[in-house]
């Protein structure tokens, strides 16, 4: 059997282009066909497949599943590396290698036997290829099909033929930047004391609809129309209310493919979306404060937050309370809200790479202020860190260029791809290891359905009573989340008896709807002797039937989210004990 390390294409040390990412997935599938299935759930506009990797034995057998996706935003390349690392560690679980992610043996067994893993390592491959190739900023994908979009706007591209599309600066008397004396090339916000020269900063590229005078303000969506993380159906709002919303919910092939797959797979109970950057977990609710959200769900996210702090050193924040760019204005159409509110999964975002902390900057709260309120001194701190710890990848030189529209400019400046948007290559693996520790523990929270103690008792006159217990031995309840309990497809557990030839049902309904079963977990439990009690409702139900005859009887417990488990009991002459098996 091939060694996992020998199959790696180096995603823990560098950022893979699409062709190599694709090769990595198929290398695993060829090596471990009994564990890995790679399928395309859709295609991008430029014809790249959206490869979904399924990890687990018997992938067609429905059972609780954990999902991870990455690179929904083109520049956030580290997410793909982390998603692949999680997949690799999940393979270690199945291959019986040394316990990955510091998992105890019983969790390794649980993940191997009871949980399926779905990995979408690159959701927006078209955009990621542009970022990897030219450093051109693309929010999600390099496409623009807006109608009536005739106002002047920036088209971001390489103007001087060096293969990169970074920034341009132009001397202007009203410019709002000056150059640092300490770090030539570093641009600082202008102060009234600064004598000049003064500069305006623009994206490297050209102005579409140029009128010879007006220079439009830059925008991350100036030449790419849709932010994929505003294009999902839950809470979708059209522009202008939500910038980057797209023409309609799931207007993009990538968001539509994910939505269709998730809607056909109610077994997904955990959902991690990998972004960059910042070093923070953003959890529900995106539109309610903590006091208004389901308190049992909040307790679950507190447990996940504890792991995030312990293994990754990242805080966990409410999306509504700490990550809205405008006060009290929730984001609309984001994937994490779709996963949590509409698909009933423990869905949240990880902004990988704790850049603020690594650069020695204050980590602000509410957390969104780290992106919105930075100072001139912070820029100098970043430049010092870039030189000392990032090989000077961020702050570069400016080169004179005669722009056909703007005249004399300088091109170059900043390349934030490595260092800010993503960790340096030598730091990727530590990020991967930390997130695998968190995610695989999240996956181990799965509800786990069991049929226990089924037996046949002689009732006389050729009658046999079959009785036993259906139980959830997992952390989470069978409905998974409080917010999911009322979703119409989130069916309660049903238990069905199937008498074989020679056996007929005499008493009891063939299908028993036993309802949802609680799990044993709950972060809110009393953890001290003050008033320690088991507060949850019982996680089990007793069922029984009366049958007549001799032969084999099967009992099956199932729900859409959990799949099915089955046990077989011999009744009548020569009966044997029950044997349980997943279905």
Structural category is alpha+beta
Count of helices?
13
Distance between the termini: 28 Å
Q: What kind of assembly state do the chains in view correspond to?
A: single chain
Based on Cα principal axes, name the global outline: elongated
List the helices and strands and how they pair.
Elements: H1 4-7, H2 18-31, E1 36-43, E2 49-55, E3 65-70, H3 78-95, H4 105-114, E4 116-120, H5 125-134, E5 153-156, E6 167-171, E7 177-179, E8 187-189, E9 199-203, E10 205-208, H6 253-263, E11 268-276, E12 280-283, H7 295-312, E13 316-318, H8 319-322, H9 335-342, E14 346-352, H10 355-358, H11 369-372, H12 376-389, E15 395-403, E16 407-414, H13 428-443, E17 449-460, E18 463-472, E19 493-499, E20 503-507, E21 511-515, E22 540-549, E23 551-559, E24 563-571, E25 579-582
Parallel strand pairs: 3-4, 3-11, 11-14, 12-13
Antiparallel strand pairs: 1-2, 2-4, 5-10, 6-9, 6-16, 7-8, 12-14, 15-16, 17-18, 18-22, 19-21, 19-23, 20-22, 23-24, 24-25
């Amino acid at each position: 059997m091939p060694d996992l390390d020998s199959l790696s294409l180096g995603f823990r040390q560098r950022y893979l282009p699409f062709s190599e990412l694709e090769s990595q997935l198929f290398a695993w599938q060829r090596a471990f066909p009994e564990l890995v299935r790679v399928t395309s759930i859709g295609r991008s506009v430029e014809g790249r497949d959206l490869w979904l990797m399924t990890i687990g034995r018997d992938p067609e057998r429905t059972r609780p599943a954990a999902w991870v996706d990455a690179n929904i935003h083109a520049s956030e390349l580290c997410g793909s590396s982390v998603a692949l690392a999680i997949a690799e560690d999940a393979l270690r679980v199945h291959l019986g290698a040394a316990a990955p992610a510091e998992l105890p043996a019983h969790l390794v067994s649980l993940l191997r036997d009871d949980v399926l893993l779905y990995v979408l390592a690159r959701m927006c491959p078209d955009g990621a290829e542009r970022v990897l190739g030219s450093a051109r900023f693309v929010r999600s994908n390099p496409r623009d099909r807006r109608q009536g979009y005739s106002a002047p706007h920036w088209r971001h591209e390489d103007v001087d033929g060096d293969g990169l599309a970074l920034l341009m600066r132009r001397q202007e008397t009203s410019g709002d930047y000056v150059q640092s004396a300490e770090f030539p090339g570093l641009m600082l916000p202008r102060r009234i004391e600064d004598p000049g020269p003064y500069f305006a900063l623009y994206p490297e590229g050209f102005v579409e609809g140029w009128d010879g005078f007006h220079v439009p303000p830059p925008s991350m969506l100036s030449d790419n129309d849709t932010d994929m993380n505003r294009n999902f159906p839950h809470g979708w709002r059209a522009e202008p209310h939500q910038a980057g919303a797209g023409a309609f919910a799931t207007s993009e092939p990538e968001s539509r493919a994910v939505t269709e797959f998730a809607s056909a797979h109610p077994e997904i109970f955990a959902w991690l979306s990998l972004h960059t950057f910042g070093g923070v977990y953003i959890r529900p609710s995106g539109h309610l404060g903590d006091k208004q959200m389901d308190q049992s769900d909040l307790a679950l996210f507190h447990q996940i937050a504890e792991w995030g702090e312990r293994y990754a050193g990242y805080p966990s924040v409410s999306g509504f309370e700490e990550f809205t760019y405008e006060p009290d204005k929730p984001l609309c159409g984001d994937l994490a809200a779709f996963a949590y509110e509409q698909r009933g999964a423990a869905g949240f975002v990880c902004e990988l790479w704790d850049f603020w902390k690594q650069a020695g900057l204050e980590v602000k709260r509410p957390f969104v202020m780290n992106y919105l309120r930075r100072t001139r001194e912070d820029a100098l701190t970043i430049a010092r860190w870039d030189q000392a710890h990032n090989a000077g990848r961020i702050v570069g030189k400016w080169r004179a260029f005669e722009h056909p529209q703007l005249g004399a400019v300088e091109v170059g400046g900043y390349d934030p791809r490595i260092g800010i948007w993503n960790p340096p290559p030598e730091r990727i693996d530590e990020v991967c290891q930390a997130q695998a520790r968190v995610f695989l523990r999240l996956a181990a929270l799965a509800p786990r359905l069991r049929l226990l103690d089924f037996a046949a008792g002689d009732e006389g006159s050729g009658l046999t009573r079959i009785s036993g217990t259906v139980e959830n031995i997992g952390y989470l309840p069978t409905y998974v989340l409080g917010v999911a309990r009322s979703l119409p497809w989130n069916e309660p557990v049903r238990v069905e008896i199937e008498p074989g030839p020679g056996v007929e049902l005499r008493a009891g309904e063939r299908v028993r709807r036993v309802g949802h079963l609680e799990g044993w977990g709950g972060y809110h439990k009393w953890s001290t002797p003050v008033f320690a009690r088991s507060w949850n409702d019982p996680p089990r139900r007793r069922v029984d039937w009366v049958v007549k005859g001799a032969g084999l009887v099967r009992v099956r417990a199932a729900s859409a989210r959990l799949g099915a488990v089955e046990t077989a009991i011999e009744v009548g002459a020569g009966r044997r004990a029950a044997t349980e098996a997943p279905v």
